[in-house]
Amino acid sequence: MTKFKRILLKLSGESLQGQQGYGIDQQRLSDYAVQIKEIAQQGVQIGIVIGGGNIFRGLSGAASGLDRVKGDQMGMLATVINSLALGSALTSIGVKARVMTAVRMEPIGEFYNKWVAIEAMERGEIVIMSCGTGQPYFTTDTGSSLRGIEIEADVMLKGTRVDGIYTADPEKDPTATKFDDISYNEVLQRGLRVMDITAIAMCKENNLPIYVFNMDKLGNLKRVINGEPIGTYVHP
To answer: Is the pLDDT reported for residue 113 higher than 70?
Structure first.
């Protein structure tokens, strides 16, 4: 028995680059696809949002003088590239997947529609939703919160390269301690950088819990789905 029936899986673009430092690492992509297939075979309905930081970040572009709107649009296109790559990796191992985009760009992807996405998930397809919200000034974290709420997911699973939420960045501070369980309010009050403030506020207002875990360790996605306490649970 799985803990969740329908999930929104948020993957970071940075994790897709593996040890390369840029672009898409094929082994990491394959590992992700295998983990997603494992839980799909358990009957879990899966929606996915991927960031684009391994290719381009709108904020970084704006910091170097690029127009913010254009930079964010470039970031949206980066998420489409990652989504197409994951969709292809899933298809290659026998999993039905479709890419939807928040900005019209047929035939590259199907224009996002909540009802079409839900119907596809109910048929067992993996739905990868790209372009964030389709609007500038919003992160893919906020895009994933929005999509998770829209598709009526039971939880947002935020797959990262660390095993949960800590009092400080564990990669920089060896004294940082991990939370097994934390409220939205405490995340906001402590200024913990789990997701941006808008994304956390949306989840709080719409009662969408968040589970943060290390997606880079093979088998972890299945462990989360089966209820093993390996990450941090964010809730009301």
So the answer is: yes
Tell me the mean pLDDT in the region 203-226: 95
CA distance 45 to 82: 20
Token pair in block for residue 29: 């992509």
Torsion of CA 229, 139, 22, 103, to 10 degrees: 120
Give residues with Cβ within 8 angstroms of 225, minimum separation 6. 2, 3, 4, 7, 39, 42, 44
Alpha-carbon distances, residue 232 vs 109, 141, 189, 227 (angstroms): 33, 17, 17, 12
DSSP 142-181: HHHHHHHHHTT-SEEEEEESSSSEESS-TTT-TT--EESE
* Residues in a beta bridge with 20: none
Give mean pLDDT, residues 80-98: 97
Return the sign of the alpha-carbon dihedral for residues 173, 53, 146, 151: negative
Element (H, E) at 5: none
The C-alpha atoms of residue 72 and residue 56 are separated, in whole angstroms, by: 9
Closest CA to 50 of 71, 20, 29, 21: 29
Give CA–CA dist 160/73, Å, rounded: 24
In this structure, the number of other CB atoms found within 10 A of the CB of residue 63 comes to 11
